[in-house]
Every structure is written in C-alpha cells, then in structure tokens.
C-alpha cells in the first residue's frame, strides 16, 4: 500500500522519513511537539514539511493558535499513509509486551462513577498479572478528554463523548439508564411521579463541566418546560447521601444508585420524561491503536464493562 502511494502519488520523490514526519505532525497537530516526538529539531521538521508541500502541491498544514490544522489534502493522505506505516513497523519490529515485568504507568481520565465501576475489578487483575503497572486517574469533564489525548497527557478516557476527531478512536462498552431518586419519605414518593410534579421540585445535577444544565434540561426546553437546579456537584457518589437527607431529587445512573450505601434510604422511580440510555465509551488516540500495552489495557477495561451485572428494572 505504501509503495503504491510513493510510486503513484509522488513519483519517487518521497521517502519514508518524510512520511514518518507527516504522521507525527498529523498526530500532534503541533510542529514543536512533533519534533520532540521524533527527537528532531523544529527547523528540520519544518524543512521536511516544505519538501512535502512541494511534492504534493498543497499546504498540508495551516497555522492555528494551538499549532497547525490539516488541509483536506492532508486528511485525504492520512489514512493510507498511516496504514502503510503501521504495516511496515509490524513487519520490521513486531512489538512485545510482558505484563508481569512491565512498570508502565497508565493515565486514565474518568469520573468518580466510572472509577467506582472499573477499579474494583481492575485492581485484582493487575495484582495477579501485572503487579508493577501503575494507574493514575485524572478528572474527566467529557469536554477536556480529546485535548488531553491529543497532547499525550492521558492514555485513555472513559465517559460519554459527543465529539471526536479522525485521530481519536471511540468504542461503546456499556449501557446504563437513568432513574429518579428521592428520600424514602419524600412527598412525591407516595405515587407515580408526573412530569408536572417533577419540574416543580428542586433538583441536584451532576455536572462534570460546571454548567448548571444537562441533557434533561435540553429535552425540557424542547417542550417549553424547565426545572430548578438548586445544587450542582461534580461527583456522582455524593448525590445519594445528599438526596437521602433533603427534599432534593436527582436523575442518576442506575448502577451508581445500586452501589450506594444509601440505597435503603432512597425511593427509586422512573423519570417522567423519556431519555436515551446512557452509553459509556472508551476513547483513545490513534497513536496508541497498535501499542501492545495499550491494547492489553483496553481489552481488560472492555471485558470488565461486559461482565458488569445487567441493570435491574423497577
């Protein structure tokens, strides 16, 4: 494949070093970071890009405040060049990974809800098969994950992602549903919750971005309704305790409620508005796609998600 690109597209004027540099710039979208990644000077990378521009008769990358942005031509070339380089590397140097001897550190971006689901299952696996691997958890706001992956500050992000790029891979691993929770003796716990009652009470909202609005509010606006968000927090695990001791109600992932020690103090009911299931996703950067250590970690996280108990019905 890569030979065909070289022969047909650029008439033997290009070499693998230029393709390697093109790949690094596409992954980093920043010439300075690409140079660091390649252990080259920035002028050397810039010189290589000028050669590529002459060969392809295209700018390939345009300057933007954060670095560079690929042109449509660069995006067109990206997939065949990337695939070709992957095949060449696999043929010349098959990667190896030994979990038992690895001292690698994996940095994961995840909310407390996700951490509570995955870490209790992951830690025993690491203890048995990879005791020297380290895990670092950083906050995931769902809007910062792509940037952290692009800048190589994290290895994986776990959450729900509405936007990604060509350089990011996303895989759905689990489905949950939202339920409405309130204290056991809340006035609304006596009968079926109606939409009219729902919008008149005060709510707790878990917001990872800090915004006092969520997907339920978007749906309410579509039917010209609104609710009062009396309290916002950035941790799912706080909510059951706060609800159990107040008149506030909240929409929560069912699995989080089932894991809470305050579940016995809660009334759990269906939401009076139809919402889509909550899909949990794992997202990683293209540069890690065939990294054996990364593949190993992804496989375990996916297996853990698939083995979680089915969400119970009300």
TrEMBL record:
It comes from the Bacteria. One of its GO terms (molecular function) is DNA binding. The keyword Lipid biosynthesis does not apply. The keyword DNA-binding applies. InterPro entries: LysR-type_TF, LysR_HTH_N, LysR_subst-bd, WH-like_DNA-bd_sf, WH_DNA-bd_sf, YidZ_PBP2. CDD domains: PBP2_Nitroaromatics_like (cd08417). Residues 14-71 form the HTH lysR-type domain. Keywords: DNA-binding, Transcription, Transcription regulation. Belongs to the LysR transcriptional regulatory family. This is PCP degradation transcriptional activation protein. It comes from Acaryochloris thomasi RCC1774.
């Amino acid at each position: 494949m890569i030979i065909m690109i070289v022969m047909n597209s650029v008439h033997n004027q290009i070499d693998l070093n230029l393709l390697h540099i093109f790949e690094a710039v596409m992954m980093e979208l920043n010439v300075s970071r690409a140079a660091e990644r390649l252990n080259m000077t920035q002028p050397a990378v810039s010189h290589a890009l000028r050669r590529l521009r002459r060969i392809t008769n295209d700018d390939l990358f345009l300057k933007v405040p954060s670095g560079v942005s690929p042109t449509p031509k660069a995006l067109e070339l990206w997939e065949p060049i990337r695939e070709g380089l992957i095949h060449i590397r696999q043929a010349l140097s098959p990667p190896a990974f030994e979990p038992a001897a690895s001292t690698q550190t994996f940095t994961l971006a995840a909310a407390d809800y996700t951490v509570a689901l995955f870490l209790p299952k992951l830690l025993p696996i690491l203890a048995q098969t990879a005791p020297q691997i380290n895990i670092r958890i950083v906050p995931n706001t769902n809007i910062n994950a792509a940037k952290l992956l692009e800048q190589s500050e994290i290895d994986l992000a776990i959450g729900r992602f509405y936007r990604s790029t060509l350089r990011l891979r996303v895989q759905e691993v689990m489905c949950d549903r939202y339920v409405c929770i309130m204290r056991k003796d809340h006035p609304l716990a006596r009968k079926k919750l109606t939409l009219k009652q729902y919008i008149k009470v005060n709510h707790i909202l878990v917001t990872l971005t800090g915004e006092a609005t969520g997907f339920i509010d978007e749906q309410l606006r579509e039917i010209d309704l609104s609710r009062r968000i009396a309290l916002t927090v950035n941790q799912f695990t706080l909510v059951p305790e706060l609800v159990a001791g107040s008149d506030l109600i909240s929409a929560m992932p069912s699995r989080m409620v089932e894991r809470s020690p305050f579940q016995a103090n809660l009334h759990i009911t269906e939401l009076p508005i139809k919402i889509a299931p909550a899909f949990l996703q794992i997202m990683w950067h293209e540069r890690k796609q065939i990294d054996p250590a990364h593949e190993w970690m992804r496989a375990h996280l996916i297996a853990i998600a698939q083995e979680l108990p089915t969400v119970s019905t009300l």
